Amino acid sequence: MTDYRIEHDSLGEYKVPDSAWYGIQTARALDNFAISGRLPDVDFVRAHVQIKLAAARVNCQPDWLDAQRSSAIVTACQRILKGEMLDQFVVDRFQAGAGTSHNMNTNEVIANLANVALGGQRGNYSPVHPNDHVNMGQSTNDTIPTAIRLAVLAKLPRMLDAIAYMAKLFDALAEREHNTIKSARTHLQDAVPTTVGREFAAYAWTLRRVSQQLAASRPLLCATGLGGSAAGTGLNTSPDYAERMAVELSALTGEAIVVGNLAAQMQSMYDLQVLSAAIRGVALELTRIANDLRLLASGPRTGLGEISLPAVQPGSSIMPGKINPVMFEMLNQVCFQVLGQDAAVALMTQAGQLELNVMMPALGSALFDAMDWLTRAIHATAEKNLEGLLVNRERCASFVHDSVGLATLLNTQIGYARAAEIAKTSERTGRPVRAIVAEQGLMSEADFNQLVLDAAHGVGRGGGN
User: Fold this and answer.
1) Of these residues, 19, 36, 126, 316, which one is catalytic?
2) What is the DSSP letter of 462?
3) Which among 70, 86, 199, 437 could disulfide-bond with 60, CB atoms 3.0 to 4.6 Å apart, if both were Cys?
4) Is there a catalytic annotation at residue 316?
5) Is 101 within 8 Å of 108 (Cβ atoms)?
6) Contact (CB, 8 A) for 285 and 210
7) What residue segments make up the domains of the chain, in order of their start?
8) What topology is assigned to 143-392 in CATH?
9) In this structure, are residues 7 and 13 in contact, taking their beta carbons and an 8 Å threshold?
């Protein structure tokens, strides 16, 4: 008894684990590309199988694929899409250019499933052959970039949902803290009054804006080069293959798949670079927001301490009782890693040559990671640190009335020069501006407090909501 079988290809024979549903070309790739130890992305696997399923249906026509083989391939694909055999997709993410090894991994698994269902054996490839039947009318060069596009289209709604969830929580905080006055800060220095609500509402608005930019990449990603075959010419494809594949994939994915330029979509990764740039925009804004919240939560005694974040774990191995803003620290780290993935996507986008970009396996992987990591990080941070966020209203009020920036409110009444003198007096003596204003008979402390409130809400001369 052996634990392997012998299969043959154009290079000769090779041992394949007897229990494997994949075949010889996958086995070779496993030995050649023991690089990262990371299996292919599940959305990518599913997208590639959807292409094989659609092709089996489209190719089921006279002089192409007979009904028996077509039905067996479709059934095998449906089993995989239901979650079976996912452990049989084993080629490392860093592999031969363009992704031939993954394409053959998919072809072999489907062929073996189909053959066993038809009474055959694994590794014999009769009556269903990985290349002749499962890969009919296809090439690595058009199926892999299409699968990458379908995979990111599958991930995009999850990412948009996570951003929307965070924006919704910021909106709720903005409404709750609508009247909580605080000191704005510009150049990290005291500035004019604002509200916590206005600050949080700005975060929500920004997140919705970057989300819109992200969603705008969707139509670009729906244009496929599937049907281009090896070089965009449509070689060895059945009649109306490209158009019928677009229809089938639209039905399978729920996306508005259309036929793009068959040659361009294997040469150019422009649409994927546009998506990556939009993800970079999300990461940059999230980094800024995370840093703001870490700063606002600093302390609790010796920092700003204007907000308190829920404690999710002890913050120190040596300092008892210390609580750190760990979720926003994690979010920062993920954002920085995503920026690195975007840089890799940019380099690989320009690395295409002539009829093909051979960097597609790693390019796709970089995008998949960026989307998955950021989606999970956004959701976890929102759930564990925005839910339950508390505002220290007393501290905010104390800061705002200690701020020399309040002298700015007097500019239109006593002029910039005299307001500057009041600011200097406040800074020199440590006395609040309202006390100095009352002492000089400019207005009562109550009237000045109302002036501060109006300014924080944008009411008054030059103001606005």
Assistant:
1) 316
2) T
3) 70
4) yes
5) no
6) yes
7) 4-136, 143-392, 403-456
8) Fumarase C; Chain A, domain 2 (1.20.200)
9) yes
Question: What are 158's two structure tokens?
Answer: 């999850």
| Burial annotation 75-95 (CB, 10 A radius, 16+ → b, else e) | bbbebbeeeebbebbbbbbeb
Which pLDDT does position 205 carry in this prediction? 98
Q: At what angle do helices 196-215 and 270-296 cross, to 10 degrees?
A: 170
User: Residue type for 375, please?
Assistant: T
User: d(Cα 422, Cα 407) in Å, to the nearest integer?
Assistant: 7
Extract long-range pairs of 277-280: CB within 8 Å, 24+ residues apart.
277/342, 278/210, 278/213, 278/214, 278/216, 278/217, 279/159, 279/214, 279/338, 279/342, 279/367, 279/370, 279/371, 279/374, 280/338, 280/339, 280/342
Strand partners, 218: none
Distances (CA, A) of 94 to 36, 308, 315, 434: 7, 43, 37, 65
Q: Which two tokens stand for residue 107?
A: 């072809």
Count of CB atoms situated within 10 Å of the CB of 438: 16
- Assigned architecture for domain 4-136: Orthogonal Bundle (1.10)
Query: What pLDDT is recorded for position 464?
Result: 39
Predicted confidence (pLDDT) at residue 303 exceeds the cutoff of 50: yes
Spatial distance between the Cα atoms of 104 and 112, rounded to a whole number of angstroms: 12
Exposure of 217 in the CB half-sphere (CA atoms within 13 A): 27
Q: CB count, 10 Å around CB of 318?
A: 5
Topology, domain 403-456 = Ribonucleotide Reductase Protein R1; domain 1 (1.10.40)
Please check the confidence at residue 362 and state whether its pLDDT lies above 60: yes
